[in-house]
Amino acid sequence: MEWMMYINGNWTKGELEKTYETLNPYDGSHLAYIYESSERDALVAIKAAKYSFYDDRKWRDMDSQTKGDILLRIADILESRKEEFARLEVLDNGKPLREAECDVDDAVHNFRYYASLIKAPYGGVYDVNSGFGKMHSYTIHEPTGVCALITPWNYPLLMGVWKLAPALAAGNSVIYKPSPYCVLTSIKLFEIFDEVGIPKGVCNLLIGGANIGNILSSSMDVDMITFTGSTKAGQMVMKNAASNVKKIGLELGGKSPNVIFADSDLDGAVEWAMLGIFLNQGQICSAGSRIIVEESFHDKFVKRLVERANNITLGNPLNNPDMGPVVNEIQMNRVLDYIELGKKEGAKCILGGYRYTDGECKDGYFIKPTIFDDCSSEMRIVKEEIFGPVVTIQTFKTEKEAIDMANDSPYGLAGAVFTSDGAKALRVIKEIRAGITWINCYNPCFNEAPWGGYKMSGIGRELGIKGLEEYQEIKQININLYPGTVGWYNN
Ligand code: NAD
């Protein structure tokens, strides 16, 4: 199969007909050659999207019932091809199969959710000041226009769908650029878009890295950019987006606190803490990468955490071990560098801390689950996002200390509190400066609820009703119920 980009309703090898290779992170074997977009291809895609939105208007003007039906067909086809998509995601990204299957399920339901939501009543009628005569004031929502969507590699299919489904439901034309590390399921998704007959130019898929991202974010013809990725790249996007004051949505990095009080259920807190940092090999923006545990509970909690994390199985992700490899060699080396840094900084590595090469893992990019104890807020491994299976542990004595430690970060994406004291849980969670929080659990994520960060973790929200509104402009319409003069001027 040839892995190509999709521009203006056509599969194309692009201007340069140039490919790059992607490897299976499980064993470093060849997976695919993928055609890369040139800067000119990006301009062609922007032009096609612009024409489809402003001139052709087929998708933009389609009634929401018909549009919703098309999104439902996409969901049905995706569901019927679940195993194919899940397996491809595993080969490309390295996540265990059951996690990839959950991603496809979530993607299916995301399309269904927005297919329904677009048919719900929206807008409002306002009782306004009538100084200038009797007015009827109301609002409508309209699509924003040409939207560029940029995503990372950790949830290749799902991160794309979180943007594509609401953007399309709202009636926009899109240019989607996934991370070049993992594009295969995105290409397959566009096969489905092609099959269901979304009008040409409405959905465009570019394949490339920051150079293509820069063209999209600085283009005067792109009305909106929504970006998921690192805070550093997000800042570039924000700067470039100033060119034409684009609407922006940013879902950025995190270094999220997981606060565990001594009155927590021990086994529950340990299992959720593991899910918080070892799910998807720790490559989750919301990962609970900073465990902040009450001093009197520390020894008991850490002992059990180490015992259980040490038993985490690593292996061929198609066979559903607990953890697969990280996405590629670059990412593996980045995480291993952080591990070395943690050791140098004086944190105590009490589990893992190395590349895992036992048995069938010998050629893959595996990292043993890694736990650093005796950490302090000044350490870089506590401050910076590692984006791998590495967790730091700090202790606190008082509730206030726990809150201060939790908030001692430029990020504000997620956070959790574990305790059996309901009032304390609510008090502490209210104080945590983060957009996604949990009490007595970690990491569940729902299509229906808004997702996004405080502080340097981003701007705006995805998912839920907010996730649709991100891709809409709101127009105020004021109707004079008594047309004619108002007698303002004397002459
Ligand atoms: P990254 O920032 O390197 O790349 C993300 C995407 O942006 C890729 O498609 C990349 O090609 C593109 N890109 C890179 N530089 C760009 C630029 N200057 N202009 C425009 N586009 C550019 O991030 P990554 O390594 O792919 O993903 C990991 C990061 O994503 C982590 O920081 C993680 O926290 C974040 N993330 C956040 C969320 C969230 O919901 N907040 C979800 C998933 C991942």
Keywords:
binds nicotinamide-adenine-dinucleotide, six-stranded mixed beta sheet, 491 residues, 22 strands, alpha/beta, seven-stranded mixed beta sheet
| Average predicted local confidence, pLDDT | 97
- The radius of gyration computed from the alpha-carbon positions, rounded to a whole number of angstroms, is 24 Å
Taking the alpha carbons of the first and last residues, their distance comes to 76 Å
Shape: globular
- What is the number of E strands? 22
Structural class: alpha/beta
**Sheet with most strands: strand arrangement:** 14-15-16-13-12-18-19
Strand residue content: 15-25%
Distinct small-molecule ligands in the complex: nicotinamide-adenine-dinucleotide
Report on the biggest sheet.
7 strands, mixed
Low-pLDDT sequence parts: none
Number of helices: 15
- Work out the helicity level: 25-40%
Compact summary:
The chain has 491 residues and is α/β, with parallel strands linked by helices.
What can you tell me about this protein's structure?
It is a single chain. The chain is of the alpha/beta class and 491 residues long. The chain is 39% helix and 20% strand. The chain contains 15 helices and 22 strands. The protein has helices at residues 39-56, 64-80, 82-93, 97-117, 156-169, 184-196, 210-218, 231-241, 266-278, 295-310, 329-345, 380-383, 399-407, 422-431, 464-469, and strands at residues 5-7, 10-12, 19-23, 30-35, 125-126, 135-143, 146-150, 173-177, 203-205, 224-228, 247-251, 257-260, 290-294, 348-351, 370-373, 390-396, 411-412, 414-418, 436-439, 454-455, 458-459, 472-480. The protein has a 7-stranded mixed sheet, sandwiched between helices. A 6-stranded mixed sheet has the order 9-8-7-10-11-21, with helices on both faces. The longest helix has 21 residues, at 97-117. The model has no long low-confidence stretch (mean pLDDT 97). Nicotinamide-adenine-dinucleotide (NAD) binds next to α7 and α8.
